[in-house]
Specification:
This protein has about 170 residues and is mainly α. It is built from 5 helices and no strands. Helix 2 packs antiparallel against helix 3 and helix 4 runs antiparallel to helix 5. The longest helix has 27 residues.
Amino acid sequence: MKQASCGAKTRGGTPCKHEAGWGTEHFGEGKCKLHGGASNGRPPIHGRYATVLKGKLRKRFEALNDDLDPLDLLPDLQVQRTLLTEYISRFPEDVNISGKDLKIISDLTRDVVRTAEKIVRMRNETVLTTAEIALIRVGMKELMKDYVDPDRHGAYLADLRAFIPGQPARIAS
């Protein structure tokens, strides 16, 4: 008995001569691999902007998914600074800059400053305070009583001080 054919039309308009499911995991049924039988369908559309963005804008948007650290604003700051210096470099030294150009330079400068301030704020939010370091130190000292041999307490505390900023560095020999 002859297998069913793929059923799809070729570019020339003639029926495909491959057997149904040829080159796929479902040999004997459905389209051949040349006509979509091996495909799981189009990629799913998901995400906030997936149905809105089209063409080049969508491709650029999707490329951003490869960003390993999207919260790192340093590359953004570098772009802003580059744009600012590029814009300023367009003006020869002896030319008066128009009010419109001064406004653009001012806006670009403000954007650079705001991004730099954001970076500083974000970094400060993740830095341990002196009080937090002191609390950790006290906690480690308490844990020492349970886990470190009493004969080694002095050496442990000296080594601990050496690792904590702002503490005198005494390392036991």
